[in-house]
Amino acid sequence: MSEISKFENARRRASKLLEKMTLTEKIGQLSQFGTSIYSDDHKAFEDHFAEGKIGSYLTIRDRKRINEIQSELVEKSPNHIPALFADDVIHGYKTTFPIPLAQSCSWDPEMTEKCCAISAKEAYRDGIRWTFAPMVDIARDPRWGRIMEGYGEDTFLCRCFARAAVKGYQGNEIGEKDRLLSCMKHFIAYGAVVGGKDYNSVDMSMQQLYDIYLPPFREGIDAGAATVMTAFNDLNGVPSTANKMLLTDILRKELGFKGFVVSDDGAVEELVNHGYAENEGDAGKKAFNAGVDMLMSGDIFNDHFPEFVKNGEISEEKINESVLSILTMKFLIGLMDDWKVDENEDTAFFAPEHLSAARESAEHSFVLLENDGVLPLGKHDKIALVGPMARNKRDVMGPWECVGEEERTVTVEEGLKRVFPETKISVCEGCDLETDDISGICEAVEIAKSADLVIVAVGQRHGTVGEAASTTRLRLTPPQETLINEVSKLGKPVVLLLFCGRPLVLTEYRDKANAILCVWYPGTETGNAVANVLSGKHNPSGRLTASFPVTEGQIPVYYNFFSTGRPAVGIQRFEAKYNDCQIEPLYPFGYGKSYTEFLYEDIKLSSDKMTEDGVIDISFTVRNTGKHDGYEIVQLYVRDLVASRVRPVKELKGFKKVFVKAGESKRETISLKAKELAFCHTDMTFSVEKGDFKLWVAKNALDNSNEFDFRVV
Ligand code: GLC
Predict the structure, then answer these.
(1) From the CA of 182, how far away is ligand 1's center (Å)?
(2) What's the gap in Å between 264 CA and the centre of ligand 1?
(3) pLDDT tens digit string along 202-258?
(4) Bridge partners (DSSP) listed for residue 692
(5) FRET label pair with 268: which of 214, 519, 583, 610, CA 20 to 30 Å apart?
(6) What's the whole-number average pLDDT of the chain?
(7) Strand intervals (E) in 103-246
(8) Shortest CA distance to 235 belongs to which of 260, 197, 200, 263?
(9) Predicted local distance difference test score (pLDDT) of residue 178
(10) Is 385 in a helix, a strand, or coil?
(11) Whether residue 4 has pLDDT greater than 80
(12) Residue 497 near residue 79 (C-beta atoms within 8 A)
């Protein structure tokens, strides 16, 4: 049966069921509950089971428990409708993968698709059927802790990862075994909160919204995303969770979204705090009438909607539409026909192929920021491994670790000892991640003194990034800075391993180390991935997808900015720049080093002009002139030189990840479609404009060495 007819068949079965349901039961399908409803006092919710007031649960993490709840609900509720069990499977269920920001630095959407598919399989086996992922919020401000959860600052790249993640979680069509319903979040522009302060307001032009923040959602919806989650923030004064223009006019009418919308946790009642609703009932009504189908979480809909329907403030027809879209999904994934989780089926948790995928994803996510040649590590008799991340099992998993198990984490120490069995590796954390205690630093320095080389494993506690983790200081803790300073005085080769979830200010550390490798939060296979990269088994190929600022005061700093009337080129006083800081970020979008060198040769354009529906193929040879095989990520940037709205100085419009053996070369092509040059005009139409353009085949956003002109005619 085709996908369309499967959808229609599910919808038909759902509408037949809908006819038998009471209003109470219909509203129950719109209500999601957390663990509270089934904790010790779950007896207090007997009526919820008897009247079918529960449509979904979140974060119930055990298939036995899910079966218990489900069988009671199915047995006691009037039409025996099972609940949809959801969870935040963001970068792994049991096997923990690198955080999404790290995964984006691999520039390998297919690898992320594989990670999401594995995560879906492990979660599915444990009874989960819906994940609140992918998070596709574009983030240009590293003060915002949730930058770790998305795919960076660039719209084009985020679109690629959004599509890949939806495909990974959902498979080719909704309803396959070992797959989950996906959820595009947070709709919309949550990453643009003022000051990088979580939950803060967002104020931007609709053109900016359409050019920068909406495309990843459009991509995910085109890829078949089943659900969308609203954002906490207001957009131009109207909270996203009660924003009809967003949730109905744009999401459903313009983007053609056919799934259902769930509020973020608490976002409905928070409309009162926004000053947009008088009370929780008013909040529920406004959110629902704007386009929210399901409440996360609690009884606001159950408690207030019967009255609103009676007095006409909410139409039962609209309730029926929401219930229909939720029931259709339940039929489509087979939940209505078989809700029982097989408690004997292999969970596949930490399966060898899952671990190797996690290791590969981590290896490809690492970004080599500095290297004077000290890496890859040669033969050393004695290595000192110091720093609080040396033996760390928990923080290296990052936030949103779902039900990952820290005891399964391979530490840096374990990884290094596996890869360098003949080397004496002495270990001393020297300090921790939380206190100001520096009493252990002298011991760390002592073991460093007797080593040939020192690896300093430092970073941020996992709780310092993620939700509700905005910060004004993007540095390591003072004890870690002391450790770096003391070790650097020894005159030994120093390799800095940086564990973080956001761009940090590394300016002061640059001259303290011979190499800096940003490993983000690599997950379960941390130690193996770190050792494989330090040893050269995997040549680091990651490229930054979020700019690293020189200092916090430089924020927001991102690569696709507008030229302004006084572009900052550093030749005169009157330019758009700061007088006390360099113009560029410390490390730009697209930046990353390799153990080898790649040359781009013989770059050819299939034409220097194209029509509005045309394409130009850019062919090039990538030559590996070094001694190490490796991946190069060739980036294609464009600039529209003159347009009806000013355009960014650079925009990523293509990339190619190429593996080239040492001494060899490969000929590749990136196709630039004219439609990718479209942008939102002042009259809100969206199209390509004719005119002159430049393009660059580049190593990062600041690389202008291969520049070409072309026209749209
Ligand atoms: C949180 C997050 C959201 C998450 C939800 C459920 O507040 O904003 O991304 O999916 O609640 O945990």
Answers:
(1) 14
(2) 6
(3) 999 999 999 999 999 999 999 999 999 999 999 999 999 999 999 999 999 999 999
(4) 711
(5) 214
(6) 97
(7) 130-131, 183-187, 227-230, 234-235, 238-239
(8) 200
(9) 98
(10) strand
(11) no
(12) no
